[in-house]
Specification:
With 398 residues, the chain is mostly helical. Helix content is 68%, strand content 0%. The chain is built from 20 helices and no strands. The chain is globular and about 60 Å long. InterPro entries: GT87 (IPR018584). It comes from Amycolatopsis cynarae. It is a multi-pass membrane protein. It is found in: Cell membrane. This is Glycosyltransferase 87 family protein.
């Protein structure tokens, strides 16, 4: 890594960290309220008290509001949070999530081929600090959500050598906490890493077994249908649902034929992503392949809040790396566009009343409300065109 790049990122990261910390201290109720972490703590307490985490909402009595939507295995992982007092829970939510983000940045840079040494570990800290100004990361930090952890488990797993016998286990654990990372098992299959895919499935099965052994009632409730009950999350047309299904629900509805249309389009996007990811992986572009899978998983998920889109942070790392190459004009354009769409809090510094483009009021709000979805589709299309061009060039040279 060139020294000017290292020191520039180090300085910018320090400024970004200072600005973020100042913003949190000025408005902790917005940027560090940790509502979801508090709900995880309630789930941990219920496990200790022998009370089901699924039979009733964790807070209040309204279906679809503050219900536990993770696996029984996840509830067991939240037990250590049960007895933490307020100062400690804030440290876990704030400092803990930031350190996990730094590990994610390290794994992403390792996947790009950077030497895995102390210098890279140090460099990962300012990169993570810069990512605090990415809206999904910012919201995950504010809620104390698990999304950064899940992304980190996947990135660290895929950063392991293919020869490592335990490769795939962390993906299985991530899927054992929340089902959506199971998409990466398909990625392992499509990229012909069958042993890692099998390890992921075994790892996931172990989390299920642990759940059934320790929480048999909740496991039966969850796996017999609660995991697929959309009412536990909320109505699909909710303005906060920034997935493909949310967009369809708000524009054409999701009943009957519309529901089938959503499933067909989501399946087509998922398949296209996996085919592109296989090409990228075989060509040595592992991080971009994994990032597209992460974004696609969020796009085709039935319900995606803004903090689910943490894979935009990995996309920013991909584009930042690409922009360091000589004459990388298209990479700079992509980086600027992605940052403009994904940034959080930057607009406030520029005098806007909105923290991101998602909530800017105008007559066609559905356009910016689905900005992450459009960005994902554009990214898939650009990658497909770039992969197609070399093939056309080779054909023309024959």
């Amino acid at each position: 890594m060139p020294a000017p790049v290292f020191w520039t990122i180090l300085v910018l990261g320090a400024v970004a960290a200072g600005g973020y910390l100042a913003a949190v201290l000025a408005d902790p109720e917005t940027l560090m309220h940790l509502k979801d972490l508090g709900v995880y703590q309630i789930a941990g307490n219920r496990v200790l008290d022998g009370v089901s985490v699924y039979d009733t909402p964790l807070l209040g009595h309204t279906r679809g509001v503050w219900e536990f939507v993770y696996t029984p295995f996840a509830a067991l992982l939240f037990v250590p949070l049960a007895k933490l007092n307020v100062p400690l829970i804030v440290y876990v939510g704030g400092i803990g999530n930031f350190l996990i983000l730094a590990v994610a940045a390290w794994a992403a840079l390792a996947l790009l081929g950077y030497r895995r040494d102390l210098r890279l570990a140090v460099f990962s800290l300012p990169v993570a600090a810069l990512l605090l100004w990415c809206e999904p990361i910012r919201q995950t930090m504010a809620f104390g959500q698990v999304n950064i952890l899940l992304m980190t488990l996947v990135l660290v797993d895929l950063a392991l050598p293919d020869s490592f016998r335990g490769k795939g286990a962390l993906i299985g654990i991530a899927a054992g906490i929340k089902l959506t990372p199971a998409f990466f098992v398909l990625y392992l299959l499509f990229s012909k890493r069958y042993r890692a895919a099998l390890t992921s499935v075994i790892s996931l099965a172990v989390t299920l077994l642990i759940g059934f052994l320790v929480l048999p009632h909740d496991s039966k409730t969850f796996w017999s249908g609660a995991f697929a009950d959309p009412a536990r999350v909320g109505v699909p047309q909710d303005p906060s649902n920034e997935s493909l299904r949310g967009m369809f629900a708000r524009t054409i509805g999701v009943t009957g034929g519309q529901q089938l249309l959503w499933l067909v389009v989501a399946g087509a996007i998922a398949l296209a992503c996996l085919l592109l990811a296989r090409r990228l992986s075989s060509g040595g572009h592992e991080l971009l392949a994994v990032t597209l899978c992460g974004l696609t998983t969020t796009a085709v998920s039935p319900y995606s809040w803004v903090h689910h889109w943490v894979w935009l942070a990995a996309l920013l790392i991909c584009l930042l790396d690409a922009s360091l190459r000589r004459w990388a004009v298209s990479a700079w354009v992509g980086l600027a566009l992605t940052f403009a769409v994904a940034s959080g809090g930057v607009l406030l510094l520029l005098g806007s009343d909105e923290s991101s483009i998602l909530t800017i009021p105008w007559d066609h709000q559905e356009v910016n409300r689905n900005a992450y979805l459009w960005l994902t589709i554009v990214a898939l299309a650009v990658v497909a065109l770039r992969l197609k061009k070399p093939a056309q060039d080779r054909e023309a040279a024959r």
